[in-house]
Each structure stands twice: as structure tokens, then as C-alpha cells.
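User: Can you help me understand a structure? I only have the sequence.
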Amino acid sequence: MAFFITLPIIYFLKWSIEKGDISHVFPIFNHSWSEFFIAFDRGYNSIAGYEVILIFFPYIISKRKAYKHALIGIWITVFLCFLTTLVSVMYFSEWQLRNIQYSVLHLFKAGGFSFLERIDIFGITLWVFLVISTVTGYIWAAMKGVNSIISKRKSSHIYIIGVIIFVILSLPLSHENLEKVFIVSYRVGYALLLWPIILIGIYFIKKKQVQS
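Assistant: Let's start by predicting it. Here is the structure, written out as C-alpha cells:
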């Protein structure tokens, strides 16, 4: 529900496309491999979250249908991130991309409606709604993970996890240190994606040992 409510935000890119310059996109592929992997790592943070499917997949009744629907959702997310990145490169100069913080908010303010004075506030409100709904999924997944380890399954675990997250975010850390904490948390997502592959490898190894 949160996804479809916030999806109309993409309409705000219309003014940025009109005021942007397509020549900012060129030249293409003028980067080194190290720059490519750095951009890939930072870009992955924008679409991270689909790995939670691995947590609630066992609770899905029609698992075969879930493959198609999950892929559709992932590719919609990839397309929206690609479109936002493309419009940002068209609208901003190279210096602005390097120095302007919260560039997406500036994309919102590229145009506006006559009946709405602060369109960026409207965009932030919808964005926060989407973030909160996403966080609830992560907290639920964390609670399921704790319940699978501890013998006593309690619903109070979700409140404990919420308090721990609130305390971590409330620590008197600088913006740079908080960003490092977030990067480490995103790197855990790589482990979640590789873990099923490792389990599949272990499964085939044990299967061959049993057959032999």
C-alpha cells in the first residue's frame, strides 16, 4: 500500500526532465572498473531491501507464483532508481551532483503546482511514509530471526529490537560515523544474498557424499 501511495512522486520528475539537458549524460562508459564498482556499491544501497523476501518466503502459500511477482517488483524498483538517476544527471551539473545534499528534494522543487507552496514538504511526507513502512518489514524480519534462535518465542522481542535501533540512532555520533554504521548494515545485505548460494553448495556436497 505504501508503495502505490508514494508511486505518484515520479510525476514530479516531469519538470526536471523539461529543464534538464540530455548532453549531461554523455560521454557514456568513460569510467574505470574501480569507479564502476564504487558506483555499484553505492547504487545497491538505493535498491536494497528485496533480500527480505528470503525471510517471509516460507510464509507464502503459493510459492511458485511468488517468483514472478517478486521479479516484477524488483524490476519496477530498478527502473524507478534508473529513471531518477538519469533525470538527476540531466538536471544537475557535475559540480552540483558532487556537492548538493539531498538532490532528490531539489528535483521536487524544480517545478510545482499553483495550489501547493512547498512541494518539497509534500514529497518528504510521502517519502517518510515509505521509509517507515519499509522499516517495519525489517523489524518484523529481525524479530523472526531472534525467535528462531531463542527457544521462547515472544512478541515482546519486536519492542526490544525497536528500542535497540532507537538507541543506536540516538547516539551522539557525527554524520560521517553514522554513515559508516549505515554502510556496514548495507554490507550485511550482501551476506544475505550469498547465504542461500552457500547453502545450495553445502546441500549438493552432502548429497554427493550420501550417494557415494
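Now, to help you interpret it: Residues 2-170 form one domain. The radius of gyration is 21 Å. Let me know which part you'd like to focus on.
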